[in-house]
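Service request form, structural biology core

Requester: graduate student, group of Dr. S.
Request type: structure prediction, single chain
Budget code: on file
Notes: please return the result as structure tokens.

Sequence provided:
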Amino acid sequence: MVVVSSAVLAQMSALRVQYSSLSLVRQSRRSSATCDSARILTHTSNSNAVIGADQQTGIRCQGPCTIRNVWFEDVCEEAIVLRQSSGTVTISGGGVKSAPDVVVQHNGGGSVKIDSYCAQDFGRLYKSCSNCATQVKREVQISNVIARNGKLLAGVNSNFGDVATIDTATNSYTSLTSVCDTFRGNNNGNEAVRVTQNQSNAK
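Core staff response, request fulfilled:
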């Protein structure tokens, strides 16, 4: 298990990293309202990197991939977008700071494992797409997570059979509005309807 101290989160705001040596990282300056393009990963892994500010989407996985010890300084839209048709994406170690929308956006199929992760000042850590044109059952496992000043840990679509397994015994929450919300998703692009908020639906 990767143990991340609270001091790490504080240090993220002061990070000044040389990006040129990190092949999967691009640096930009916040000089306009636009964001830089994403880095696309396909059936591969990314480890030990820092994604700088102004990235529209930091990482996109087109297939099963592993994201290990990757830190996001300041997220413009989503930090990670998953589009695999099946298989498992593993996100282990690392974290995100200042992500007002979604950290992990799951648009494809398969499952996601988020372990030993830090999130501070975020909207939603994990979100199953609620209005994608193609809808499938999605699964997520969340454990050993430190979540501070966030709105939602996991959002899933109950009508499509999504399953979120959240290990609350190993997670740490501070000023988190909801651990899990369920939605009634659709495939027509409309805004999804929230069904439950911060309720366990385990049988």
